Amino acid sequence: MITKLSHASLFVNDQTKAYDFYVNKLGFNVHTDVTMENGFRWLTVMPPDQPDLEITLLTPLTEAMHYDDEAKQAFKTLLDKGAMGAGVLHTPDCKATYEELKAKGVEFKSEPKRAILWY
Amino acid sequence: MSFAPDIYQRVVSAKMFMDDNLEEAIDLEQISKQAFLSRFHFHRIFTRVYRKTPHQYLTEKRLKRAKALLAKEGISISEVCSSVGFESLGLFSTLFKKMNGYAPQYYRNLAYLKKKLAKEQPKKFIPHCFIETFKLDK
Predict the structure, then answer these.
(1) Yes or no: is domain B63-138 CATH 1.10.10.60?
(2) Which of A64, A80, B30, B118 is geometrically suited to a Cys-Cys bond with A40, CB 3.0 to 4.6 A?
(3) How many domains, chain A?
């Protein structure tokens, strides 16, 4: 019986930059950061209040992932356009988090807006 | 309840001051000055925004930094305690155990074991479906 999600994957262009973004800017915690002999880096981070959810930051562009050149180019194009991956993050105060992330250099497409969700 | 944007900016500035100075013996007076607010108002707004008091936030931040230091070699537990801003090793140990479920030394032992295993057998940390999908066995 499935009870919860343990891993979710996000493709990124650069794992080092992704580490800096998720850990140093967003405040996620590192769960595992190991690099295998063939260069494959298994990097997973966790939202601060969800220590049992590992978000895997994978780059499809390295040789260790075994994608052909066509696939790698497709990934890169989509990643550069910001067309891959989406999610919703929870915060106790959206405006405060917005100000803090802005101060840390995170770029936003727009300011926070009040919205009412159906639940 | 929502606040004016400049209030958020001031509270965030004080929060980032805490983040940058958590190893120091900073108090509410110094922190609230960063926000150009009285201690009372800063405490009230911070707690409303972050759902925890400035003291609770600072303690949690210090204990989180302690975890990262305990995973390193070459630094004793008492050095970790003082470098994250605790004056009492007993208080540090009690709060650490309360937050993490383990005493600092036990956590350190687990961290060392994890580091050793990650170095010797990294595949132990990767779900098998990923190993198969990305042919990590080859």
Answers:
(1) yes
(2) A64
(3) 1
In a domain, A94, yes or no: no
Q: Say whether the ipTM exceeds 0.95.
A: no
Q: What mean pLDDT is reported for chain A?
A: 88
Half-sphere exposure of B4 (CA within 13 A, CB side): 3
Q: A35 and chain B: CB distance < 8 Å anywhere?
A: yes
CA dist B37 and B49 (Å) reads 15
Q: Do A92 and B50 touch (CB under 8 A)?
A: yes
CATH number at residue A78: 3.10.180.10
A78 in a domain, yes or no? yes
- How close A100 comes to chain B (CA, Å)? 6
**Residue ranges making up the domain that contains A33:** 7-88
The percent of residues above 90 in pLDDT, for chain A, comes to 53
- Asked if residue A109 belongs to a domain, the reply is no
Q: Say yes or no for a CB contact (<8 Å) between B122 and A35.
A: yes
- Cα A84 to Cα A13, A77, A101, A110: the distances in Å are 11, 10, 21, 19
pLDDT for B138 beyond 90: no
A5 CB neighbours in chain B (<8 A) are: none
When pLDDT is cut at 50, 70 and 90, the band that residue A119 belongs to is low
Q: Which residues of A touch B119 (CB under 8 A)?
A: 34
Domain ranges in chain B are 1-51, 63-138
Given a contact cutoff of 8 angstroms between Cβ atoms, the answer to whether B103 and B97 are in contact is yes
Q: Which residues of A touch B64 (CB under 8 A)?
A: 29
DSSP state of B43: H
Instruction: With CB atoms and an 8 Å threshold, state whether A99 touches B5.
Output: yes
Residue located via tokens 């972050």? B50
